[in-house]
Amino acid sequence: MQFFFVSYHQNSVTCSSNIVLFHHFDKVISVMHMNLFEQLLIFLDANMIQPVSYGWFHWLFLILTLMILVITYFRGRNFDNQQIKKILLTYAIVTLSLEVYKQINFSFNYDANATWWTYQWYAFPFQFCSTPMYIALIAALTKNKTIEKACYAFLATFGLTAGLAVMLYPVTVFVDTIGINIQTMIHHSSMILIGFLLIANQKVPNDRKTLISALNVFLICVAIAITIDVTTYYIGINQGLEMFFISPFHDSSLPVFNIIYQHVPYMIFLIIYIAAFSLGSYILFRIFRLPLKTEISPLSHN
């Protein structure tokens, strides 16, 4: 999942002709000779009071998510497969574009005298919650039905679970940058919406084959995450990254799992992690299927 613990930019911005004025804490600083791209980045770094769980900002996106879920239930259950693919492609492009913005925002730094770039490896985009945008892109572009169905299954189970977990418990995702807060809420709420869309259009049957294919995609993602963690550790990048927060070299920071990590061997922890998310994803998949007992048009089965 995507967890952001710090924000490196504490600035708000106003622009006038060739001079950019921005407030750095209580000081007003003039920055001359800054190019337009850098001016835009500072503008997009505008601040807000850091949101809190179940504060107004969080509630706003929870309500919007619920409204779209209701609309999907009543009006979005008759999409054919080509329409589903177009929606997935749009979702992937939007979330990937917002991810690019986040990476740039986290890497761009400035003070009264200079601007510079430092990549923030902790934000490397392959956390659990990053995977749905890649999987959706694959699902939208592939012509292989087996791969397509496996991607659909993953998005409707593990993807939905990851998005719901963060939307209900967003403690570590909020910062004081307006754009990043909007990005993280769009990113995680859309994971729920895409998962429910696939369920509502009966693209993910409730059978053993579906669950196995979803688990296979998840295991591939876990393997990639561990490979990144181990590789970056041995080549000396940031003392090893913590993708999926399951690095064998760092204590997990996930709630509950951080306690388990400290009391069992790593391989046992990993098995518990996979089993817990698999079980939780299956349960939520079944719960989201409960309202969908009425028949819908045969068009949705194409």
Describe this structure in words.
This protein has 302 residues and is mainly α. It has one domain (50-301). 57% of the residues lie in helices and 8% in strands. A three-stranded antiparallel beta sheet has the order 1-2-3, with helices on one face. A two-stranded antiparallel sheet has the order 4-5. A hairpin with a 2-residue loop joins β2 and β3 (27-31). α5 packs across α6 and α5 (145-168) packs across α7 (208-234). Residues 1-32 and 295-302 have low confidence and may be disordered.
Identify low-pLDDT runs. Answer: 1-32, 295-302
- What is the number of domains? 1
The helix tally amounts to 9
Helix content: 55-70%
Mind describing the biggest β-sheet?
3 strands, antiparallel
Strand content bin:
5-15%
The run of helices and strands is EEEHHHEEHHHHHH
Radius of gyration: 21 Å
What is the averaged pLDDT score? 88
What is the number of E strands? 5
Keyword list:
302 residues; mainly alpha; globular; disordered N terminus; disordered C terminus
